[in-house]
Design goal:
Length: about 120
C-alpha cells in the first residue's frame, strides 16, 4: 500500500517535471533572460528593503540602551576517574586513591588517606 503511494507521488513529480521542461523549452532565450532578471530584481529589492529597514530602526529607540549581562558561573559536573570512582577532581579536596601508592621519584610506599602506613 505504501509502495503504491510512493509510486503515485513519483509519477506525479515526473509528469510535472516534464510539463515544466516542455514549457521552458518553448520559451525564447530573450524571454528566459527576462524571467531571470525579473526574479533577481525582486530578490535584490527585498534584500535592500530589509537592510534599509534594519539600519533605519537601529537608532530609533535611544532610551533602550544596550543591555549588558554578565556571564553566570557554569556548574560543571566533576570528572571521575574511570578506574577509581572515589577519586574526585576539581574540588580541592584530598583524593582518595588505592591503599598503596608508590612515589614515582623515590619508589617508596606512601601513607594511605586515613594516615596508616601502607604495607
Amino acid at each position: 500500500m505504501m509502495r503504491k503511494k510512493i509510486e503515485r507521488i513519483r509519477n506525479y513529480k515526473d509528469q510535472q517535471d516534464e510539463a515544466l521542461r516542455h514549457w521552458l523549452d518553448s520559451l525564447s532565450p530573450q524571454t528566459k533572460l527576462s524571467i531571470v532578471i525579473g526574479v533577481f530584481t525582486v530578490f535584490a529589492g527585498c534584500a535592500l528593503f530589509m537592510f534599509g529597514t534594519a539600519i533605519y530602526h537601529l537608532g530609533q529607540y535611544p532610551d533602550r540602551g544596550i543591555e549588558i549581562h554578565h556571564i553566570r558561573h557554569l556548574e560543571l559536573h566533576q570528572r571521575q576517574d574511570s578506574i577509581n570512582l572515589l577519586k574526585q577532581y576539581y574540588d580541592g579536596t584530598e583524593q582518595e586513591s588505592n591503599p598503596v601508592d608508590t612515589c614515582t621519584e623515590t619508589g617508596k610506599e606512601t601513607e594511605t588517606v586515613d594516615g596508616r602506613a601502607a604495607s
